[in-house]
Specification:
The chain is α+β, with helices and mostly antiparallel strands. Helices cover about 30% and strands about 30% of the residues. It is built from 9 helices and 16 strands. Strands 7, 8, 9, 10, 11, 12, 13, 14 and 15 form a 9-stranded mixed beta sheet that branches. Strands 2-1-6-5-3-4-16 form a 7-stranded antiparallel beta sheet. The structure holds pyridoxal-5'-phosphate. Pyridoxal-5'-phosphate binds next to strand 10, helix 6 and strand 13.
Length: about 300
Amino acid sequence: MADGIAFIDGEYVPAHEARISIFDVGFTRGDAVYDTVSVWKGVFFRLDDHVARFLRSCGGMRLRCPHPPAELERILAECVDRAGLQDAYVQMIVTRGRFADLADRDPRHCLNRFIGFALPYIWIISPEKQARGINLVIAPNRRTPTEAIDPRIKNFNWMDLERALFEALDRGGDTGVLCAPDGYLTEGPGFNLFLIKDGTLWTPRTNVLEGITRRTVFELAAEVGLATREGDLPPDALRSADEAFLSSTAGGIMPVSQVDGRALQSGRPGPLTTRLRALYWEKREAGWLGTPVKELLTR
Ligand code: PLP
């Protein structure tokens, strides 16, 4: 089943057949949390880390995941296996669910619902574009600050991120990165941001999702002897960086070669970025920090 499998209402169905109610508050108000994990060559990457973050997200929005972690992992593995996928984009979601009756507006009365699915692996930036490096636009709109909508809780409130994507596409860019109201760089639709300046790897300190790939980048950087820092980075730090890249479960380490249409240094993916990216995929091919789908099915 190449187009994917979803698990919904306790059943496995073809992904395109999965449906939710128009009265699910996850749909009407974006009242839902999710997490996305990848499978490469039949092996989940850092599955326990993704599940732990997902359960923290549920707690942060007072949502209850009806499945304990081991059961959740098994359901996701089942989706991948039934879909017959080796390289997959796998998502777990808990939505608020429906109000017990439509005149009731007490969220404590909703029956939270779990949905999982596995699709063929998704690249938010295609490998062809990654080879050239992308044009990253610094979006004019702001990222909602942590005090308003906590980005560490992976949630469906994407209005600011979607707008940034439209703004970037309108300007001929590939995607957009947002600053918070304090003016410092944050992240973008589906990715964290890194830049390299004078041999140090920098990433925004606040108003970001604590990305699992971001954490992985720190570890890879340590392996190649590259110093890493989290900091408050103004847009000019990006414009004058030696190198920059994005990180995401859906695409890995993605080189930036232009900012707002202007070449970053050589206008090609930088050497340290290229090295980190190669190392990331080399290790993924070898099943690094992985749990085989098949192993989960026999647990
Ligand atoms: N930031 C945002 C807003 C995201 O949606 C994502 C991933 O989907 C990321 C960062 C990257 O996180 P991860 O590396 O865990 O995929």
